[in-house]
Design goal:
The complex is a heterodimer of chains A (about 400) and B (about 375).
Chain A (H helix, E strand, L loop, with lengths): L6 H16 L3 H8 L8 H14 L17 H13 L7 H14 L2 H13 L4 E4 L15 E5 L2 E9 L9 E7 L10 E6 L7 E6 L8 E12 L3 E2 L5 H13 L6 H15 L14 H25 L10 H24 L8 H4 L11 H13 L9 H13 L3
Parallel strand pairs in A: 1-4
Antiparallel strand pairs in A: 2-3, 3-7, 4-5, 5-8, 6-7
Chain B lengths: L6 H17 L2 H9 L6 H9 L18 H13 L6 H13 L4 H11 L5 E4 L15 E5 L2 E12 L6 E8 L5 E7 L5 E7 L5 E13 L3 E3 L3 H36 L1 E2 L2 E2 L4 H29 L5 H26 L9 H14 L4 H10 L1
Parallel strand pairs in B: 1-4, 2-4
Antiparallel strand pairs in B: 2-3, 3-7, 4-5, 5-8, 6-7, 9-10
Classes of the chains: A alpha+beta (about 400), B alpha+beta (about 375).
């Protein structure tokens, strides 16, 4: 056992920090500071992705042969830490974190050659078409239909909660190709080359924070080639389950982001008067509550470091569910802490001031500008990627199965 | 002990509820919030017509001499309909401050307020921690002709649309907290209006050496008055919050009974059923606390501690109910289209103003 970082690693840290201090444009930095969701502002996020690609750092978690960095576990953690310290917008997870790794594992050579390079370069952005109006937690009940017709499928139905579909140029989705047998047995995993197929319509949904982050996608006799299928027909559920490990499994550690939230909260608390005298940061009740949250974030960070270094905990069948439950609830708690510091400062609805490039002055501080949208947006973390109720069922089931 | 509402109170409550059912559905309210208007002049006019604007004022002020339980009875439906009109702020707070003043100008303003033709905004909150009047830093310097006000007020409800401001500031000569009447067009005022997360019209207001006359003093030593009127406003805002909580409980239980996953209503799953049960328990606690505190206040027996219990509990319970309602609704609960999130935002705003639950619970624990 050893947790020390060698001088080489410290040099690596300086190299990363130096790059983050010089490479991002002012708009990218602003987008990072104004990120109030897992999903950063799209345009600046993709611009930053392309800059990272030029440097060779777009996909640290990919195998080197596909454009990954070949970094050690320690290097990846240092990279993630410096990334958050610099308040840079996180890259979007759907392409780099989900469909990319899936294709590396299960795609055909043609699919890999066609789709991986533009994902890596930040030219393509993929939407994830899973949930449907009638199929959320019970995803396997999905009913968006694909019928084989020659070399094509004809798709009818709709998807919902398709994050950033209005920005996407490609989409991966689950469709129903059979209604025989178990519901899981008739699902197929499809890659769509375009978002503008005839009969396809994307409609943004406005969230509580006032932003159109989610979308509905409608399919009316949309004809797509069967060559976009991953795996066999009716075997899509196992493909999706494989991908889910990437989605929930913490390929991207959440703790550096959480640490940064806490730093920002503590910094703001140092400038916020407490009604009990002095500054909030010096208030023992605040300190105790803050410490409780901070300890949980630090424990998550330890868990993530163990997992990324190959510790057996990461092979526990319940690990993805535990990881998702812990980090989603911590994001919510951190956002509540930030809102508590902002207090009434968070009550102004400030959509325009929050836009990147806006010249509208915020009411109050830049911290006050982000706390409420972040709080509202983070109510989604315990719902998306399998609600925490479902995750707890899975964790309990793993105990019953003796894991 | 009797915690029931009188026949008159039930009648008034029913007529307010009927009016709002008919004229204040969620879509109408949404269009109103999206419009340039800070609130609906028609609705405000109707409130005047129904006697709501006159209700809390004494008969000598042209009012109806209503009690706090009269107000609690009908403002619950303000919460159910997420009313954005500034009743608790313009009538309860500014109005009550004016009614407590011996300044002859105050009576003139009350007359115009009761008829619905003027709005007085209550400039009190200064940002974090103005949970008690003692935290106020805005100052009133004394000069030859009167006073010079300096400081900044935040989240002044109706602050961008008021005819006059009732301003709490520290009287520099006496060191006491005083209330002043300030014309909304006075030189040196910078009013920066915005809409709050829960759809109300508000403003941050900066006072840069705003000159006001000696006759602008409403109350020279206003700490006791402020504590009393803020406590009453908290009770009324708590009634609104309870109305929002009740709506959330009902909407969420209905949804859980109809939404099916894994072949059955999600309310049948224990994880959801227990969450609904906790929401119901939270509502029962909030309802009891509000009702009992109202009865105490009605007989003038509500202490500062009772107000800490009320605001601390309802602030906390409201957040719990709101967060649970969103969780049970899943993605739908996070959309702007559904009313659930809007109720939650009203409850968040309620918790934040006049001291959040952390503040009130701690005050309670301090004894």
């Amino acid at each position: 056992m050893n947790v020390e970082f060698s001088p080489e690693l410290e040099a690596f840290r300086r190299e990363v920090a130096e790059f983050f201090a010089t490479a991002p444009t002012p708009a990218i930095r602003e987008a990072g500071r104004k990120t109030t969701s897992v999903f950063a502002p799209f345009d600046q996020c993709m611009a930053w992705h392309q800059i990272l690609y030029q440097k060779g750092w777009a996909a640290p978690h990919w195998p080197k042969e596909y454009g990954g960095t070949g970094w050690s576990v320690e290097q990846r953690f240092i990279f993630a830490e410096e990334y958050r310290k610099a308040d840079l917008p996180p890259l979007l997870p759907q392409s780099l974190g989900m469909v990319g790794p899936l294709l590396i594992d299960l795609g055909t050579e043609e699919q890999k050659a066609k789709y991986l390079p533009p994902i890596l370069k930040g030219e393509d952005f993929w939407a994830q078409g899973y949930s449907e109006p009638g199929s959320g937690s019970d995803l396997a009940s999905l009913s968006c239909r694909a019928e084989a017709d020659g070399d094509d499928y004809i798709i009818n139905g709709s998807k919902i909660w398709t994050t950033y579909a209005h920005h996407a140029n490609r989409m991966f989705m689950l469709v129903r190709t059979s209604t025989d047998g178990k519901k899981q047995a008739g699902i197929t995993f499809l890659l769509l080359d375009r978002m503008d197929y005839p009969g396809m319509e994307v409609r943004p949904i406005y969230g509580l924070d006032g932003f159109p982050e989610q979308c509905e996608v409608f399919f009316d006799n949309v004809r797509v080639p069967q060559s976009g299928r991953v795996g066999e027909e009716n075997q899509g559920w196992s493909v999706a389950k494989h991908l889910l490990k990437h989605e929930r499994g913490g390929g991207n550690a959440a703790s550096p982001t959480l640490m940064r939230y806490l730093e920002r909260a503590r910094e703001a608390a140092g400038q916020t008067p407490s009604p009990f005298g002095g500054m909030l940061a010096d208030d023992p009740v605040f300190q105790r509550d803050f410490g409780e949250l901070e300890a949980d974030v630090i424990s998550l960070s330890h868990l993530e470091k163990l997992a990324i270094s190959g510790h057996e905990i990461a092979r526990d069948p319940a690990f993805p569910s535990m990881n998702k439950t812990i980090n989603s609830e911590l994001i919510q708690r951190a956002s509540v802490m930030m809102s508590r510091v902002s207090g009434v400062g968070g009550l102004a609805r400030q959509l325009e001031a929050l836009r990147v490039g806006s010249n509208v002055e915020p009411q109050g501080s830049e911290f006050d500008l982000i706390t409420m949208p972040l709080y509202l947006n983070s109510r989604a973390t315990t719902i998306y990627a399998g609600s925490n109720e479902v995750q707890r069922d899975l964790i309990a089931r793993s105990l019953a199965a003796g894991a | 002990m009797d915690f029931s509402y009188s026949q008159e109170q039930v009648m008034l409550t029913d007529s307010v509820a009927r009016y709002l059912e008919k004229n204040y559905d969620f879509d109408t309210r949404k269009a109103l919030v999206a419009s340039d208007a800070p609130w609906s002049a028609d609705v405000w006019g109707q409130f005047a017509e129904l006697g709501l604007l006159a209700l809390p004022f004494s008969e000598e002020h042209g009012g109806l001499g209503g009690s706090i339980s009269d107000l609690v009875a009908f403002t619950r439906s303000f919460g159910k309909h997420l009313v954005v009109e500034p009743y608790a702020f313009a009538i309860m707070l500014s109005g009550a401050a004016l009614a407590s003043s011996a300044n002859p100008k105050a009576a003139e303003w009350i007359e115009r307020i009761v008829s619905g033709e003027a709005i007085a905004a209550f400039a009190y909150e200064e940002g974090n921690g103005t949970a008690s009047p003692g935290m106020i830093a805005t100052s009133a310097g004394v000069d030859t002709d009167g006073f010079a006000l300096s400081g900044e007020k935040r989240i002044v409800i109706a602050g961008g649309d008021a005819d006059v401001l009732v301003v709490a500031a520290k009287h520099e000569a006496s060191g006491k907290l005083a209330l002043f009447l300030v014309d909304a067009n006075a030189d040196g005022l910078s009013i920066s209006p915005y809409t709050t997360i829960d759809g109300r019209s508000a403003a941050n207001i900066r006072f840069d050496d705003v000159q006001i006359g000696k006759d602008a003093v409403l109350i020279e030593d206003a700490t006791d008055t402020l504590e009393r009127i803020v406590a009453q406003a908290i009770i009324v805002l708590s009634a609104e919050a309870l109305g929002a909580m009740g709506a959330l409980l009902e909407i969420t239980a209905d949804y859980a009974m109809t939404r099916k996953q894994f072949g059955q209503p999600i309310a049948m799953f224990q994880a959801i059923a227990h969450r609904l049960a906790d929401m119901k328990i939270a509502y029962a606690k909030a309802m009891s606390t509000l009702t009992y505190t109202t009865a105490l206040a009605n007989s003038g027996a509500a202490t500062a501690r009772d107000i800490h219990v009320l605001k601390g509990q309802l602030g906390k319970l409201g957040r719990e109910i709101g967060e649970s309602a969103i969780q049970v609704h899943g993605g739908l609960g996070l959309t702007d289209e559904l009313n659930v999130g809007h109720y939650h935002k009203r409850l968040l705003a309620y918790d934040a103003i006049f001291g959040d639950h952390d503040y009130h619970l701690r005050k309670l624990g301090q004894r």
